[in-house]
From TrEMBL:
Domain Aldehyde dehydrogenase: 30-486
Keyword Membrane appears in the UniProt entry: no
Pfam families named in the record: Aldedh
InterPro entries: Ald_DH/histidinol_DH (IPR016161), Ald_DH_C (IPR016163), Ald_DH_CS_CYS (IPR016160), Ald_DH_CS_GLU (IPR029510), Ald_DH_N (IPR016162), Aldehyde_DH_dom (IPR015590)
Full protein name: Unannotated protein
MF terms (GO), sorted A to Z: oxidoreductase activity, acting on the aldehyde or oxo group of donors, NAD or NADP as acceptor
Family to which the UniProt record says this protein belongs: Belongs to the aldehyde dehydrogenase family.
Database matches in CDD domains: ALDH_GABALDH-PuuC
PROSITE patterns reported in the protein's UniProt record: ALDEHYDE_DEHYDR_CYS (PS00070), ALDEHYDE_DEHYDR_GLU (PS00687)
Coiled coil: none
Keywords: Oxidoreductase
Length: 492
């Protein structure tokens, strides 16, 4: 691993191009916005603000690529192109990692060991699936044969968040492109640079021009233009529940495009007194909320602890929080960097100041300035939190943990399920029957037992209730980007 000085030197040598990529070319727009780094508090680039005209151009380019190029390529050729792109991600790993670090503040140690290699691996997973997912021949009467195939839907609009800029883009692009669709990608306005670079690498990898277009801009303009566009066939989105609802509305107002949403979360972490190793559970509980600065949709932000061990366990989690190394993300020793921007930092700080409902501040709570950036918030833990307080009900998307005591298993389940969200949950117990019983009762897309936020590229990820619908990762993600087409032949 490079030293901080080496990473800073590498970052200073980068060139940043904020122009959109449409039809295989960089496109400038009349209006631009500054991309401010939360690491340096300085502007990285002037980024294109794409309006209706640019979105129309991107969709037209993707439509042409879909109809005349990408979808008509052999499975082997598409597979080779996506594997080439996976290889180019690894070949340019340091650059892509730095782009994400400078754009949104994640530690360089996480970007280089998790985000970038993970992105390449996920893309390769879907490339490998291209020639391995088959259709069906259902049973029919004699003299008839029915062929059921999965066919690409056409043009996909993909709108992705800023917490995992490259990896979230790949979560959408991998299955969408593998299925044969062309994609118009809109990265978050806070973190556009790695997606723009990815579009250049896609051309180098052999994807036809227009197969991947990247349009940048604000959600209320660029995002709305994608959601309302009559020639986009399917929309996939990861982000807030409020914005997810906008896309459902846009679909109804336009062409009834399919909409697949992965939205907010307020995931509970249930720790029972019979947990075999409380120290390990505390280590995982801290990781589940402070990793990636708490900017994780499935972060275990509600810690439900059986009352008989609540005080002891809170002390153990506080001890883990004290081990967090808050600092400049270009330092490999840093384990928690700045929040994405001043707006998000202010929002998190407001929750800490005004949202606790009188709960006890057990650790942290301060906003800090490091190397000229005031986007840092200490790992923060509140004890004895009321279930009605906003820090217990609202998605904060920052390093704030609410500890909520419970008396009985039934009460723990009731508190955990008392949320508009249903993305993820964790359960800690040494009782196998309880593990099954509680997991079955929790209304969440993924329940992790004796671990937190379990995730694998071959395992579906997504939630229930207002956390959205549809699944990312695994072969099930292909369902979002394909339609079942039947060809029925009567031969007698």
């Amino acid at each position: 691993m490079k030293t901080r000085d080496e990473w800073e030197k590498a970052s200073s040598s980068l060139s940043f191009d904020g122009r959109a990529v449409i039809g295989g070319k960089r496109v400038a727009t009349e209006k631009t916005s500054e991309d401010i780094s939360p690491v340096t508090a300085k502007s990285l680039a002037d980024v294109s603000e794409c309006g209706q005209r640019e979105v129309d151009q991107a969709v037209a380019s993707s439509r042409a690529a879909f109809e005349n190029g990408w979808s008509r390529m052999s499975p082997g050729a598409r597979k080779a192109a996506l594997q080439n792109l996976s290889g180019l991600i690894l070949a340019n790993a340091d650059e892509l990692a730095l782009l994400d670090v400078l754009d949104m503040g994640k530690p360089i140690s996480d970007a280089t060991t998790i985000d970038i290699p993970g992105s390449a691996a996920i893309l390769n997973f879907y490339a490998e699936a291209i020639d391995k997912v088959s259709g069906e021949i259902p049973v029919t009467d004699p003299g008839n044969v029915a062929l059921v195939r999965r066919v690409p839907l056409g043009v996909v609009g993909a709108v992705v968040p800023w917490n995992y800029p490259l990896e979230m883009a790949i979560w959408k692009l991998g299955p969408a492109l593998a299925a044969g669709n062309a994609v118009v990608l809109k990265p978050a306005e806070q973190s556009p640079l790695s997606s723009l670079r990815l579009a250049e690498l896609a051309l180098e990898a052999g994807l036809p021009e227009g197969t991947l277009n990247v349009v940048t801009g604000q959600g209320e303009t660029t995002g709305a233009a994608i959601g309302l566009h009559p020639d986009i066939d399917v929309l996939t989105f990861t982000g807030s529940t409020q914005v997810g609802k906008y896309f459902m509305k846009y679909s109804g107002e336009s062409n009834m495009k399919q909409v697949w949403l992965e939205c907010g979360g307020k995931s509970p972490n249930l720790v029972f007194a019979d947990t075999a190793n409380l120290e390990e559970a505390a280590e995982f509980a801290a990781r589940a909320i402070f990793f990636n600065q708490g900017e994780v949709c499935s972060a275990n932000s509600r810690l439900l602890v059986e009352r008989s061990i609540a005080e002891q366990f809170t002390e153990l989690v506080v001890a883990q929080a004290k081990l967090v190394k808050l600092g400049n993300p270009l330092d490999p020793a840093t384990t928690m960097g700045p929040l994405v921007d001043r707006t998000q930092t202010g929002r998190v700080a407001d929750f800490i100041t005004n949202g606790s409902g009188g709960a006890q501040l057990a650790h942290g709570g301060n906003r800090l300035t490091i190397d000229g950036s005031d986007c840092y918030v200490e790992p923060t833990i509140f004890a004895n939190v009321s279930t009605s307080s906003s820090i217990a009900t609202d998605e904060i998307f920052g390093p704030v943990l609410s500890v909520i005591p419970f008396e009985t298993e039934a009460e723990a389940i009731s508190i955990a399920n008392n949320s508009i969200y249903g993305l993820a949950a964790s359960v800690w117990t040494s009782n196998l029957s309880r593990a099954h019983r509680v997991s079955d009762a929790l209304h969440a897309g993924t329940v992790s037992v004796n671990t937190v936020d379990a995730l694998g590229m071959n395992i579906p990820f997504g939630g229930f209730k207002q956390s959205g619908f549809g699944r990312d990762l695994s072969l099930h993600a292909l369902d979002k980007f394909t339609g079942l087409k039947t060809t029925w032949i009567r031969y007698e």
